Amino acid sequence: MRDQVPDHYGYRLLIGLSRHRDLDDLNSAFLGALKVVLPQLNFRIYIHTELHDNWRLSAGTNLDLMHGDRVEQSVKTRDVSLIESAEDPEEEFTYVAEGDTFVCLFPIRLGRDFFAALISDGMYHPAGNKLFESLIDMYSNIYTLLYRLNHDPLTGLLNRESFSHAIEMEARAGNAMPAHLVIVDIDHFKRINDQHGHLVGDAALVELSGRMIESFRDVDYLFRFGGEEFVILLHDLSGHNAHAILDRFRESVAEQPFPEIGAVTVSIGYTRLNTALPQAQIISHADQALYYAKEHGRNQVCCYENLKSDGMV
Length: 313
Hints:
The chain is an alpha+beta fold. The protein has ten helices and eleven strands. The chain has a six-stranded mixed sheet with strand order 6-8-9-7-10-11. The protein has a five-stranded antiparallel sheet with strand order 2-1-5-4-3, sandwiched between helices. The chain starts with 6 loop residues before the first helix and ends with a helix. The mean pLDDT is 85.
């Protein structure tokens, strides 16, 4: 199959990718361009981080992560198995085919930290499709730049600077999915640094961020705000399970010792996300709940709305 997209339109697709300053917008534009080039196929993008040895579903042409539509776990497991059966790409693309699915691995480099995989629903070997490969090259270059701008270099989580944009996206979605703003803080983190040194303290931050990635979903946003403080935009599909989800995470942290440290606990405060409020006020509500948890024993989860109704804040 030859690329039937006219050259001038192909140039417009490539230039269109360079306009974006946000990873979610870039993903949408990239997948939209792929649908023009290969309209018969649907695609999913997975990003791998060497730091956490994790393949994370990033976007897809036939799913909307912002509104909770995610591929079945069995499909995701198959995708990752196919990805891992291929050799890591160096400078060029790697293609693997199985049944009616192909996998395209291509490098997105932060040093040697991670690369990306494109999964198709539908069989087509795109090697030799110059526009397809040019789109991947452009996407890879822009993704690398935006990743550095939007992510914390130590943990690989989103950084504080990217938080405002995430809240704006929630506002644009009109609170279509119930969400909560969550602050997670490592208990007695100064003691960890004092007793074990800052390198071990940094390793604890990386360990916790990895556990967050494993515990929460592709639809949730994970941030490192600085120091030992982490923030989660938790999309609670039922609107009622946030506390149970967070308490389960708290328990899992307390029950699994950290390397070189031993037992570590976290305190968690959260509030319903009301995008009609100023961002500073939303953060303040979650912070008040966190402060209450810290002042009343640590290693617990507190909800601002519950504390307020009981007259505690």
